[in-house]
Amino acid sequence: MIDLISEDQRLLRELEGLLEGMEPGSEALPAALVALRHALRAERTAAYGVDVGSDRYHTTFVHGVGFTQSASVLFEMFDASLPPAGTRFGYYDPEKPPPAQRNRPLRLSPVGMSESLRALPITGDGTGPLWERLELSEAEWEQSRTQFSGRILELYRRLGLEHMAQLRVLVCEGDTLLGWVGAFRTEPFTERDQRLMQALTPAFQRRMAQERRLREAGLLGPALGAALEVLGRPAWVVTFNGRVMHTNKAGQARWEQDAQGLAAQVRECLRSPPGTGPLFSSGPLRTPGLPDHYLVLDPGPPMDPTSRLPVLTQRWGLTAREAQVLEHVVQGETNKAIALHLGCAERTVEVHVTHLLNKAQVESRSALISRFFQS
Predict the structure, then answer these.
(1) Which residue has the higher pLDDT, 25 or 337?
(2) Cα torsion for 239, 243, 246, 247, to the nearest 10°?
């Protein structure tokens, strides 16, 4: 239990209420940063998140209070300052922060105070060289100093922060960085400020974990939609009360025909044992911090490729060989396997598949399969 005076306990409850009481997806972090600025008597507060891309780190969010720059300008400035993937950003590796720095507030001197930057941080925690207290090697420490004297110092100068002390914490879930939260002011931060930030860190962790999962759910939407199309049957991802979160084209068409009746069938399906009704449901799709979701689909009669093949061969104007290739494609076989079945080169199969995509007016193999069973 962190020892806080009664006034700080009141401030802590207020900040925790902002982070945990607001609806998912709302602007809880900006509101909490406003309150944090007041509680720490800071001039500015900020929070940001980064993700690892194929070649560099990317900004996921930036919130700032007390800055003259707009939110969009702050985002652009910060994103432009991020280094290539695999390198450090200041005192930590965004891909996997050192354990000694996870969820542990640090008080730092102004970056422009010392040319050697050996005055950072000023926590007074532990003994020995600073890089050891930050769980860095000497080589990593030198890299951090180089970054601080380069792109990071330039960012601080553009934001007017180079002569301000800072109090920051790397909010992590396990070894994953959820976000950086910090405050800036002219006067050094105190142990009291550090204790308050430490007590508040679990609330930031819960909120940022929830926001991260919501962002991931939004990013997975297009991928999930493409996967549902491949099923070739009406399919829906729904909540337990039957609210549709995702659907494919066949599912959307079914819903538009009889939304009320189908919604009742979906709810009944979720409350009944599997295989006892006209619809099939998966078990709950569980994501920490979000309500359970379910995959529901209409299995319909067994899909028989051979019954559809003659009709689509004529409709799409396929050659006999293209029809043979299509029959194997819709059964999920690879080009190599199809070539073995038909006794031809794999390159020949690739050419036939390209012709099939063009004639079916689709852009991918999965879309071709979906079009086959929906046509």
Answers:
(1) 337
(2) 120
